[in-house]
Amino acid sequence: MADLPPSSLRLLLDEGAIAANWRTLSGLSGGAVAGAAVKANAYGLGVEFAVPALREAGCADFYVAHWGEAAKVAPLVKPTELSVLHGPLTDEHVAFAIATGVRPVINSLQQAKRWLDGGGGICDLMIDTGINRLGVAMADISEPVLQELQIETLMSHLSSADEDSAANAAQLGLFRQASAQFSPRRRSLANSAGIALGADYAFDITRPGLSLYGGVPRPELAEAIRQVAFPQAAIMQLRKLAAGDRVGYNGEYTARRDMLAGIVSLGYADGFLRSWGARGALSSNGRMLPLLGKVSMDMVVVDLGGAPDLKEGDWLDVPYHLPDAARTSGLSQYELLTTLGKRYDRQSKPA
Ligand SMILES: *Cc1c(COP(=O)(O)O)cnc(C)c1O
After folding, report:
1. pLDDT for res 44
2. Which residues pair with 103 in a beta bridge?
3. What is the pLDDT of residue 1?
């Protein structure tokens, strides 16, 4: 088949920024070193981009959620550098872990038993200190089966580190209590936001995800974290609107005067959901181009009044400074990243 022609969507990725974010987060992690959560295809940015850039920066611990994700990341790292957060849900997962050397995170007594029965070996252990998601319950931490595990990293996950919540100190206390029951090689509690809670939360290794990719879950990180992903979409067609013309699905926008509009290749499947709504805008060299009407499947329409020089094929910037984009769109910073979709050509951002 012929080479694939370029997409009308591209995601410019800043290798320098992701490396700098990792170094910053590692530096803020007290005496600990930072690992990296690279699940969900590195939060939508692409493991082929993120993992080599993070390893180059010095990161040597990677976390994915699913075993299918482990298969994609394993060729990019040493097996001992990779953990699977969802743990062994089946015997096939145990066999895969043993064959590849990838570490499961054990999340329950059943998973512990399954791992040991299947031949086991070094693993991580997740304790639930209050998020009530995955992890061994505090009531079960003295169960003998857990004492048989060879634990590399003992971990827990904070539910509310992005808030000044009493839950943070409570979880820290329970994690210390759980830590006393085991002799892991390392202990780990903090995600991105948890790193900003201070050195008490850092233990031996921190597990940032969001902030590696430009997310700012707490104001303390605002100055330190750099934007990594810069989506751009091409103008596919110019259209002259006459006063009274209506635009897009349900004709929600009505032109009040004759105006120039651009039809842009950007839609739901690209993470650009309707919630961007009437407040959203794209931009060109800093000039704001307001959205007209609804995001309509694979397209948006923008007002080119502020940039009449633009032509078909020109690239527009999608505003993706994550804290600002979250405010405008009503989506969380996690959602903004992980819904970016597969239609972008992911490429290095020119310096
Ligand atoms: C996703 C995840 C992280 C990373 O969290 P962020 O809030 O994105 O920094 C860390 N640890 C676990 C167990 C996770 O599931």
Report:
1. 98
2. 83
3. 74
Name every residue whose Cβ is closer than 8 Å to that of residue 290 and which is 6 or more positions away in sequence.
Answer: 280, 281, 302, 303
CB distance 295 to ligand 1 below 6 Å: no
Q: What atom of ligand 1 comes closest to residue 211's alpha carbon?
A: 9
Catalytic member of 78, 249, 311, 342 = 249
Task: Kindly report whether the global pTM for this prediction surpasses the value 0.85.
Answer: yes
Per-residue CA distances from 342 to 41, 60, 89, 213, 278 (Å)? 11, 27, 28, 17, 25
Q: How many CA atoms are closer than 13 Å to the CA of 281, on its beta-carbon side?
A: 15
Check pocket membership of 34 for ligand 1, CB cut-off 6 A.
Answer: no
Annotation marks residue 253 as catalytic: no
Active site residue 268: no
Residue-level pLDDT at 278: 74
Helix, strand and coil percent figures for the chain, each rounded to 5: 35, 25, 40
Cα–Cα distance measured from residue 111 to residue 106, given in angstroms and rounded to the nearest whole number: 6
Residue 351 confidence class, pLDDT cut points 50, 70, 90: confident
CB of 192 closer than 6 angstroms to any ligand 1 atom: yes
Mutate-to-test residue for ligand 1 from 59, 128, 187, 207, highest number of ligand atoms within 8 A of CB: 207
Alpha carbon separation from 15 to 12, 44, 64, 322 (Å, rounded) = 10, 15, 20, 17
Q: How many CB atoms lie within 10 A of CB 169?
A: 12
Residue with tokens 């809670």: 197
Q: What is the pLDDT of residues 26-83, one digit of tens each?
A: 999 999 999 999 999 999 999 999 999 999 999 999 999 999 999 999 999 999 999 9
Pair of tokens at residue 74: 């394993």
